[in-house]
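Project outcomes to date are best conveyed with an example. Our students and postdoctoral researchers have been running inverse folding experiments weekly, and each run begins with a structure described purely in tokens. The record below, which covers 489 residues, was selected by the lab manager from last quarter's runs and is presented without edits.
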């Protein structure tokens, strides 16, 4: 007897389409990490109205097909990068990075002070902090500060590296922040909270208004002496010698940074936009002989849900609306595979660095029991005569909603529910991997849609489950942003 198909032997992957509903030529399918994938292509049928003298039905007629459904998974760094881009319909604004796709090509040489690169070296501006990874010499894999650059070289201080003659595939140089010269970066509250510099030009460092940065490195010499001047801050303005913030650590104060080479860590940045994308999703049923290949085409991400229950794994659910599907015993021509990232799954106990409401980190007595964010594009199928599947998908309003369940420790958040008061919500998750990688979700303008203290019965805690609606921030111009940090000390 042949093996019956097991759920443990289903592989799923996707590739971006350039034309809606058309599998690209020679597609490179990116593997998807999943916990379930109840996708389907539901046939739309109509029973014939023909009347027969023997009272029997003559036909069931296929008139359409609706592809779509969910893919559930667990949150991990890098695994949901494309999903987040599709959910927010924006494009990642990435820090400069050069990666060797071919050995000795994109990065062709490592001397004791410099990298020789094929192109893109000029994007690595003096003062930037660069994460080096994947090099053959273990000691070369570290964070180093750029001293100078040209289009084909990135120079660092003397004796930064051990020379390497052959630079392997996968070796990479990625900007993860910047650092001032000794005593150059100053924390100030004059004219608002900010960092100032005499030597650095902040406008050359790829910073965006609205993105979060982490002030302070791992060592005492890379941090301000004033503890509250270190930590997470959100950029509100970028000028040549001044980086201003509208969110800062509690108690942020002035510090001259005397004798300190202050480090500031930055990430890639994504905000909501209106660039709709579609995919072909492939499922392989590997217990079949021969293997069955299912292709769901035109799959457009309608919603992305992030669920954060207490003391559990952080979970994601992606919901697609698509065109149609096919199934057969042959894989689409020219298909290749891209392995899924292997970063650790994030949990809500040790991997939540911060939950913020109204710009301040949530602490006792209003401890959070669960949180949920849903991005939705309100995608609709566009049907037409002459096509069994949809001819396209229509874009709807971008909405971001969610809920926060917390202990009713005081009346602060409940008062905001009743008064329709504006607040904000942010959450940072990460730290599972060696470089402290993290994702930061920020909703800068939020109003509660409802919620009240729940007295459930004897011997229980009073909880409040408040639902919220994120709104367009009139200053920042967006509803939601995501920060992606490749290195944190």
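After processing, the design step wrote out the following sequence:
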């Amino acid at each position: 007897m042949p093996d019956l198909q097991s759920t443990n032997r289903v592989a799923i992957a996707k590739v971006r389409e350039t034309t809606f509903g058309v599998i690209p030529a020679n597609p490179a399918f990116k593997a998807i990490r999943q916990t379930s994938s109840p996708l389907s292509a539901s046939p739309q049928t109509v029973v014939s109205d023909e009347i027969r003298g023997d009272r029997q039905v003559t036909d069931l007629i296929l008139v359409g097909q609706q592809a779509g459904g969910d893919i559930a998974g667990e949150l991990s760094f890098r695994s949901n990068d494309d999903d987040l881009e599709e959910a927010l319909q924006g494009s990642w604004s990435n820090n400069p990075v050069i990666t060797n796709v071919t050995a000795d090509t994109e990065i062709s040489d490592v001397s004791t002070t410099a990298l020789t690169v094929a192109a893109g070296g000029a994007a690595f501006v003096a003062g930037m902090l660069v994460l080096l990874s994947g090099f053959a010499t273990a000691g070369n894999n570290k964070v180093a500060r750029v001293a100078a650059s040209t289009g084909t070289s990135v120079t660092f201080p003397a004796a930064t590296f051990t020379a390497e003659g052959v630079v392997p595939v996968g070796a990479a140089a990625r900007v993860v922040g910047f650092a001032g010269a000794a005593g150059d970066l100053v924390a100030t509250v004059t004219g608002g909270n900010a960092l100032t510099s005499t030597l650095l030009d902040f406008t050359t460092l790829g910073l965006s208004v609205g993105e979060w940065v982490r002030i302070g490195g791992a060592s005492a010499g890379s941090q301000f002496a004033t503890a509250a001047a270190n930590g997470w801050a959100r950029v509100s303005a970028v000028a040549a010698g001044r980086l201003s913030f509208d969110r800062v650590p509690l108690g942020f104060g002035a510090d001259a940074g005397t004798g300190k080479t202050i480090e500031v860590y930055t990430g890639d940045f994504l905000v909501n936009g209106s660039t709709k994308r579609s995919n072909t999703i492939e499922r392989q049923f590997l217990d079949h002989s021969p293997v069955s290949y299912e292709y769901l085409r035109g799959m457009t991400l309608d919603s992305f849900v992030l669920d954060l229950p207490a003391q559990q794994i952080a979970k994601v659910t992606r919901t697609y609306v698509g065109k149609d599907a096919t199934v057969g015993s042959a894989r689409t021509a020219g298909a290749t595979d891209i392995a899924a990232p292997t970063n650790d799954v994030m949990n809500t106990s040790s991997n939540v660095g911060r939950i913020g409401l109204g710009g301040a980190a949530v602490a006792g007595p209003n401890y959070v029991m669960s949180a949920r964010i849903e991005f939705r594009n309100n995608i609709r199928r566009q049907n037409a005569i002459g096509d069994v599947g949809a001819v396209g998908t229509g874009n709807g309003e971008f909405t971001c909603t969610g809920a926060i369940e917390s202990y009713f420790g005081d009346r602060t958040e409940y008062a905001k529910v009743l008064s329709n008061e504006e607040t904000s919500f942010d959450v940072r998750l990460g730290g599972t991997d060696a470089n402290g990688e993290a994702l930061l979700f920020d909703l800068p303008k939020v109003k509660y849609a409802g919620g009240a203290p729940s007295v459930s019965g004897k011997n229980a805690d009073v909880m409040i489950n408040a639902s919220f609606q994120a709104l367009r921030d009139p200053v920042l111009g967006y509803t939601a942003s995501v920060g992606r940090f490749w290195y944190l000390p």
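The longest strand covers residues 292-309. The CA atoms of residues 145 and 305 lie 38 Å apart. The training component of this project remains on track.
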